[in-house]
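subagent[fold] <- orchestrator: predict structure for attached chain, return tokens only, no commentary.
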Amino acid sequence: MLLDEHQLDLIHRLQSMGLMPTMEVITRLGSFELIVAVAGVIYWSVSPRLGARLAIAAVLSSPLNRGLKLVLGAPRPFWLDTRLLIPSDPSFSYGMPSGHAQSTGVLYGGLAAWCSSPVVRGLALCVVVLVGASRVVLGLHSVGQVLAGWVVAVVVVWCVSRWGPGGRRRHRLWTARTAAVAVVAVAALTLVVGAGLTARAHARGPDPAWVASLAERGLYQDQEIAEEFSSGSEYSDWLEDVGLFVGVSAGLLAAWQRGLIHPLDRLSLARRALRSVVGGIGVVVISVGSAVFGAADLVTSAVLGLWMAYAVPQILAAHRHASSVLR
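subagent[fold] -> orchestrator:
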């Protein structure tokens, strides 16, 4: 579904209903940072196996979405129609497919696919629909762009179901060596493709009509926004994606081999909460430390991934072992 006058009219009518403030809140449920945080909490404190699947799906989905946006180069609705209100957090990357729709489809759609609780499934699917609707109302995406994000999410979840942690085909294909080779190959391919697509976006530049529309509302005056809009994506974003993918994948592989991914049935609610507290503190320390010392995006993301996927369960397992010995 391409952007046409009918879709722009629909978004304009929805915005005139006074839904913008509510949708500004709902749309934050689809931010990639929150998606990673939720996957981390599930991995640490609820179900390590389920969390591992969700984490792999999330870190695969992000660069895939970034690449599809640069290939398709589709505009966002508010770039085209001066009648549309400007959201509080306007985005100037390309619009097809919707990243928020795809990321919520991967996380909450994965929960619906892999969780046995009907209540969790229902709530998860409600979040997917609400976030998708918020992107349309805010003028950040068309209906077609949201639907495309959901379709990509279904493909990612299906692939992880078959070949990811605990997947139906995993026993045939995956050993520690083949998994490590696959991680390196995917990371290298992503870096190369990302460099090519970013260079292509810089060379192509934005459509003059989009520039004129944004300039009419004064959005194209800020140099930083102009550069982001012109490029569609910065290569540093690809480095962050690859670093997180490598860190999470390597961490999960090491944790799986050391027997750290197992049910938490015997843990009390307090101990489960403590696992998330420890993990969260580490994420904050790493993030602040990288900002202070100016660590590279690739390195910081890789360290974060390793911390979340391997270091946290390893530290807690060592603490549990030490406690049992002292008793």
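orchestrator: received. Logging for downstream: Confidence is low (pLDDT under 50) at residues 321-327. DSSP finds 15 helices and no strands in the chain.
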